[in-house]
Known about the structure:
By secondary structure, the protein is of the alpha/beta class. The chain contains 7 helices and 24 strands. It has helices spanning 10-21, 84-97, 189-201, 307-322, 331-345, 359-373, 380-395, and strands spanning 2-6, 25-30, 104-106, 108-117, 120-127, 132-138, 140-143, 149-150, 164-167, 181-185, 204-208, 227-230, 234-237, 241-244, 249-251, 254-257, 261-262, 275-277, 280-282, 284-285, 289-290, 296-298, 403-407, 413-417. The strands form 8 sheets. It has a 5-stranded parallel β-sheet, with helices on one face. The protein has a 5-stranded parallel β-sheet with strand order 9-16-10-11-12, covered by helices on one side. Strands 4-5-6 form a 3-stranded antiparallel β-sheet, with no helix packed on it. A hairpin with a 4-residue loop joins strand 5 and strand 6. The chain is globular. Belongs to the FMO family. It comes from Polypedilum vanderplanki.
Amino acid sequence: MKVTVVGCGPSGLCAIKNCISEGFEVVAFEQTSEIGGEWNSNLEIGPNVHSKIYEGLLTNFPKEMMEFSDFSYDENVTDSFLTPDKVQNYFLKYTEKFDLRKHIKFNHKVINVQPISDNQWEIIVEDLKNDEYKTITCDKVFICIGISAPWIPKIEGLNDFEGKIIHSRDYRSTKMFENKKVLLMGSGVSALDMVIEIDKVAEKVIWINNFRQTHGAQIKLELSDKTIDKSSTVKRFTKSGAEFEDGTFEEFEIIALATGYDFTFPFLSVDSGISVYDKLVQQLYKQIINANRPSMAIIGLPLFSITMPLFELQIKFCLQYWSGRKNFPSKDEMLKVIQKDIKVLKIDENVHKAQCLGLASDEIYYNDLAQTAEIKPLKPVFIKMCNFQVKNSSKNYRNFRDYEFKILNDFEFSIECLTKEK
Length: 422
C-alpha cells in the first residue's frame, strides 16, 4: 500500500513512523528544508513561514505530555516546560532514531491532491529547488499540516487604519511595541503571553479579550496601570484608532491580532470530499477520517488538546482501518456521527465554532477513539496532568510553568513548585 504524508511537523513524523511499522510504502512532502513544523525555530515572518515561535516562548504543557509513546526526551532534559529548540531537538532525534529522512522529500510543496478513483489519489508536487512539477499516485493520504493561516476578524474600517497591523503568527519580540500605543485583540495563550510582555515596554495597551475563556477556564491576570482590560468590542476602526460598542474611542499606533487561525487546505481539489465552513472542517468522521473518501485522514485538528499523544492516537486509529484490521462504518453512519459531534462542538458559544475540545470533552474523545478502533487508550495520567495544568494556568497564568512534573505511574503524577511565592 502506498501512503503519502503531507507535512513533516510532529504529526507528520508520527504518521511516517507508524506507516513504516505497518509495512506500508510511504513518502512524505515537506515544503521547507527541515522537519519540525512550527517547532522549527525560524524568526522570519510572512505568508510562507509557518513557525509561530517568539522570544521567551515555553511549552504550555510539560514535556511528559509532549512526546510519543515509543521515544522519550533525553535524561539531561530535566525541565518540564521547554524552549522551542529543545522540542525541535526531540523531533530531530526521533527522525534519526527511526530513520525517517529517507522517506521525506524536502523543499517539495504539495500543489494539488485529487481523487482519481474511490481508493486512489493523484498528487501534484512542486520541487521548489529545481522549479519542477511532479505527479505521483497513492492509495492513502495523511494531511498533517497543522494550522497557520491567520484568522482576521471582519471589522469595519480595519483596512483604513494607517498604523501597523500584525498577527500573532508574525510576533517575534516586543521591540516594535516599545513606547507605542497598542491595541491587542485575543484571549488565547498567545494573547496572554503577548500582553504580559508588551505591558512591560509599551506606552499604553488596550486589551480586547471579550471571549476571556480559554479551554473552559477563566483566566486571571494582573497587569500594570498602562494596560486597559477592555470588555467592549470594536465597533469600527478609523485611521488612528477605534470606536467601541460602549461608545468610547481610543487611539493607538499598532493593532496586534492574537485572534487564532483558520483551517485551510488550498491543495485539496473540490471533489476531495473536504470543505471548511464557519471554522469547522466538514465531513470528518471522529475529526480524522474523510467520510466521503475514507482513504484520506487529517491529523491534529482538535484544539486545546494534548498534542503529541493525541496525534499518535489519531494515527493509530486510522491505521486500524487502513490495515484492514477494522472496517469503516457506512458513509451514512459516519455522517450521522459527524452531525452529532457538530452539535456538541457548538454548545459552548464562548468558544469559536471549530474543532475544539474542553476539559469535559477531552477524555470522552480520547476514550471514544480507543474504544471504537480497539486500540490502546491514552494513559489516565495524561488527562489528569492536562486538567491540572489548565486549571492552574487559569488561576496563576504568570507562573503556571514554574512547576516540575514527574509521572509516577499510569494513573498518578507528582509536582514540585520551583518558586517560593505563588
